[in-house]
Amino acid sequence: MKIKIIDKNKKDFLDLLLLADEKEAMIDKYLERGILFALYDKDLKSICVVTDEGNGNFEIQNLATYEKFQGKGYACKLLNHVFKYYENLGSYMYVGTGDCPWIVQFYENRGFIFSHRIENFILDNYDKPIFEGEIQLIDKVYFKKDLRQA
Question: Nearest CA to 94 among 127, 118, 68, 66?
């Protein structure tokens, strides 16, 4: 298994990026200013985009694993690498996601705690309703992790 930082041609990963963020215009807002980490296990399995939000705060903007490889620990391994990468560079890692129980649980199981919520973010910023399973996503819920305790 190998994790690489991708500096060029980040849009080559659009198919995977769109799994976590369904609107390309939203991806365009963070992709070029973010660091794109790509996890390979023979071939590409998972990606993560992290942006520097200033004052020692970083944000996971996108974390995605190809569907056929989900549940095999690739996203967890990638997150652990990201935490290690940033542990001496700042204070907090944030992630904003849809308010869906299994997504929330995924981040809480990795040491994130609730930070804040932006009501109606998904309704206001996406052209069509977004569902995770049968749950319609409406708000964007933010979680944070103390990098000094990563």
Answer: 118
